[in-house]
Structures are given as C-alpha cells and as structure tokens.
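Lecture 7 notes: from sequence to structure.
We start with the chain below.
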Amino acid sequence: MPDLNLVSKQLEMVAVDAVTVFGGLSVEQLNWKLSENDWSVAQCFDHLIVTHSLYFGECEKVSTSGYRPTFWQKVSPLSGFFGRFLINRLDPKNTKKMKTMGKAVPSASAIGGDIIERFVEHQHQMIQAVQRFPTTLDLEKTIVTSPLLGFVTYSLADTLTFLPMHCRRHSDQAQRVVDTEGFLK
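Predicted structure tokens for the same chain:
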C-alpha cells in the first residue's frame, strides 16, 4: 500500500527534476520535436497536466466524509486487473508507446515557455490533493473510476502508484527528446 508522504515526495521529485533539467530551455527548445508524430518536451508536460487534472474530481470526492462509492465501483470485477495493467504500462522502464485517450492529448500547437512552471504548480496541487485524503481511508479498498474511461475502475492505492510513475515516464520521454540528434542546442 502506498505511503501518502512517499507519493508526495515522488511527485515533488519529478517537479524538482523538471525545473533542473528543462527549466532553462527556450520556447523553441521546449516545442521542438523530431517529427509531427512525436511529442515535444512541452507536450510531455502538458499531457501530464491535462491528464492528472482529470483526477482532481475523484480525489475531492474521496477526501470528503460523505464519500460513497458508486454501484459499479462496488461490484466491478476488473478493478484489480485495470490497476495492475496501468501500473505495468505506465512503468517508466516500459518505453513502448501507448495510445493516448482523446481527453489526455496535449496541445498540438506551440506551448508557452511557462510550461515547466505550470507543471510544478500542478504537481503541488496534486500533492495537496493527496495530502487531503483522510488518514483512516483504506487505499486498497477505495475504488475510483478512471476519468478517461468511465467503465474502468481501480483502487486508490493503484492510482497513487501509477500517477508518479506516469510523471516519471513522461519526464524520461522529455529527456529522450533533448537527447535526440538534431535537438536545438
């Protein structure tokens, strides 16, 4: 079961690394990509902001004393499967491309030079959301619904495992963009 303080530290570390590694890049460097089908550094971080912002609603629901799971969250037989699937797929060591859901696609146009600052602010909002979970909350037994696919459910413990992994995965992807031959120096 994930420790909320550890999850917060993992989210903070990705924010610190983003500033350290990508904070000095120009707008042109942040938006550079090898081809039309590849993502830029800015798109990697925009994707994380867009995707993880969708979880704020579920986090808010779970944080309130009146939280009641939906019928589907109570009976879904696939919550464990979906959680394990996402943990395996979002592991930073797994560099296979995944199809991004429409709600989570980053901006296709030039992204502002403040993307790293916006990502850091977003990470701090995510950390605050995590820290608001009641200490009595059973993370394994609390089932949430995916904000991307309404029939997909998984435990809050799995969610708190794969969200930091997802951050690291795309931070690593952004690093590969910078390391690509032809990247604007």
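Points to note: The first strand starts at residue 143 and ends at 145. The chain has a mean pLDDT of 94.
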